[in-house]
Fold:
Amino acid sequence: MENKRILFTAPGVAEYLDAPYRKPEPGKVTVQLAVSTISSGTERANLIGDVNINSTKPALKEAKFPRSGGYSSAGTVVEVGEGVEDFQVGDRVAIFWGHHGRFVTVSAKDLFKLPPEVPFEAAAIWNIATFPMAAIRKCRLELGESAMVMGLGVLGLIAVRLLRAAGAMPIIAVDPVAHKREQALTLGADYALDPMAPDFAETAKALTGGGVKVCIEVTGKGAGLDGALDCMRRAGRVALLGCTRDSDFTIDYYRKVHGPGITLIGAHTQARPGQDSAPGWWTEQDDRQTLCDLHRFGRLSLDSMVEETHTPEEAPQVYRRLATERTFPLVQFDWR
Structure:
C-alpha cells in the first residue's frame, strides 16, 4: 500500500514524503490514520534542531536529522500482528507515540479502542492531554483549591479545561499574549493575567485570597517559574510541566521555595508508573480511560479546541509557521 509521512529533514524544514509500508511484527498493529495533532512545543524543538530533547539523556553534541512528530493521533486498524488479541481490523483507535503518517505501526499497548461516540478529532488529542492531567494529579488538587496555569500553549489551555473539570476555583490563566488570555477565558478560566504587568503577583494573590495553591507551569522558562513562585501561597505546589530545556534558571530558592515550603514537582509524562495507579500517580492507560469517560459522559470535549485543520500536503507551510511564529494554534492534519 502507498504510504506517506511528514519528516523534518533539516532545521526548520518539513517535507511530505513517500515512506515504506511495513507489515506489523508480532505484538504490533498497523493503523490507517484519520487525524494527527501537532504538539507544538515538542515538535518545534525537533523541527528547529534543539539538541536537548531527551530528559533522561545528555544533550546531543549536534542535531541529527531526519526527525518526526505526531505522537498523538487516531485512526482505524488495518492489520494486526501475531499475538495481538485486543484489537482487530476495523477497530477505531487512539494512538499514543506514533507519528504523522498515512499508515502507522505501533505496539498494541500504545492503542486505545474508541467507543463509537468519540470522534477521531477528540481522540487525536488524548496523548497530549494526558500530560497536564498527570501534572494536576501529582499536585493532589482538591475540590475548591485555587489554581494557576503559567503559559497558554496547547498544554496550558488543556490544563485550564482539566482544572475546571477537577473543581479548581478560581482558575487563573497567565500569558503575555492577549488573544491567548481571551481564549483561556472562553475555555473555563475565571481570570486571565498578563505576567508582564507590574502588579501581576499582587493581583494573583488578591484574586486567590492570599496566594495560589496549585500552579501548572507550562512555559519551561526560568522567568515563568520565577513569576509563578511570586504568586504562591505558603505550602503551595508547582508542577513543572513545560519542558525546561534551558537550565539557566536564576531563582531565589531560599525565599521563594525553601522559606514558604513550596513543593516543586517534576511532571514529565514519562515520570509515571508503568502499572497500578496510585493516588496522584496514575498510569497512561488509566488516564486514557479517564479522557474517554470525560468525553462519553459529556464532561470534556477536546475536539472543540481544534483551531485549524490541514491536509498533510500542507505540512511544509504549516511547519514554517511553527518554526517562526511566536504563538501557534492547535492544529490537526486530516489524512482521510
Summary: The radius of gyration is 20 Å.
